[in-house]
C-alpha cells in the first residue's frame, strides 16, 4: 500500500489529534485493537503485519497485538506515536459527522500519524480534499468522542 506523507505545516492541528484519543475501536469477537494488526509495523514495514497474542500489550484498557517483542517495546515507550488517530475510527466518516470503524487495511500515514478509513472509496474521497476533510474530522471528533465515553464504549 502506498502511504502519503503530508508535511505538518499543511495540517497545523495534527499534533492535537493524539490528545483527543478516547474510545478505541476493537474487534467485536476478540476485543483486540486494530483487528490484531501491529500498529508499529505501519511505520516500519511495506505492509501492515498481523500481531501475535504472545506479544500483547494492554493500553487504555484494550489489548494490542504486535508482530514481535521489539515492536511491542517501541509502542510501550510512545503509544500515541503509533496508535491510529481518532481511536481507529474512519477519518472520512468523522469528516462527514458520523462514526465508522476504520479498516486496518485501508490507511494513510499523514505527518507521522496513522489514520484509518472505512473503505478505499473513503480514502479516495479524503485524498481529493485532505486539509478540509482532516479539519472537519478533528472538529467532529471533539464533539463525538465524549459521547463514546459516556456510552461506556
Structural class: alpha+beta
Helical run tally: 6
Helix content: 25-40%
**End-to-end separation:** 31 Å
* pLDDT averaged residue by residue: 85
Radius of gyration: 14 Å
Low-confidence stretches: 1-22
Oligomeric state of the chains present here: single chain
Strand order within the widest beta sheet = 1-2
Bin the strand percentage. Answer: 15-25%
- Topology as H/E string? HEEHHHEEHH
Strand element count: 4
Task: Sum up the overall morphology in one term.
Answer: globular
Reported for the largest beta sheet, the result is:
2 strands, antiparallel
Give the arrangement of secondary structure elements.
Elements: H1 41-44, E1 52-59, E2 62-66, H2 69-77, H3 79-82, H4 91-95, E3 103-110, E4 113-117, H5 120-128, H6 130-150
Antiparallel strand pairs: 1-2, 3-4
Overview of this structure, please?
- Mean pLDDT is 85; it is low at 1-22.
- The N and C termini lie far apart (31 Å).
- The longest helix is centred in the last third of the chain and has 21 residues, at 130-150.
- Strand 3 and strand 4 form a beta hairpin.
- The protein contains six helices and four strands.
- It has helices at 41-44, 69-77, 79-82, 91-95, 120-128, 130-150, and strands spanning 52-59, 62-66, 103-110, 113-117.
- The strands form two sheets. Strands 1-2 form a two-stranded antiparallel ribbon. Strands 3-4 form a two-stranded antiparallel ribbon.
- The chain has 153 residues and is α+β, with helices and mostly antiparallel strands.
Amino acid at each position: 500500500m502506498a502511504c502519503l506523507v503530508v508535511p505538518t505545516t499543511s495540517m497545523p492541528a495534527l499534533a492535537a489529534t493524539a490528545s483527543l484519543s478516547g474510545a478505541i475501536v476493537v474487534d467485536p469477537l476478540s476485543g483486540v485493537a486494530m483487528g490484531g494488526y501491529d500498529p508499529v509495523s505501519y511505520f516500519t514495514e511495506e505492509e501492515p503485519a498481523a500481531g501475535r497474542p504472545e506479544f500483547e500489550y494492554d493500553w487504555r484498557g484494550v489489548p494490542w497485538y504486535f508482530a514481535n517483542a521489539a515492536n511491542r517495546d517501541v509502542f510501550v515507550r510512545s503509544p500515541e506515536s503509533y496508535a491510529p488517530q481518532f481511536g481507529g475510527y474512519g477519518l472520512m466518516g468523522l469528516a462527514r459527522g458520523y462514526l465508522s470503524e476504520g479498516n486496518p487495511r485501508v490507511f494513510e500515514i499523514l505527518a507521522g500519524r496513522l489514520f484509518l478509513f472505512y473503505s478505499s472509496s473513503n480514502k479516495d474521497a479524503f485524498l481529493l480534499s485532505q486539509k478540509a476533510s482532516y479539519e472537519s474530522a478533528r472538529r467532529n471528533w471533539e464533539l463525538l468522542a465524549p459521547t463514546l465515553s459516556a456510552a461506556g464504549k
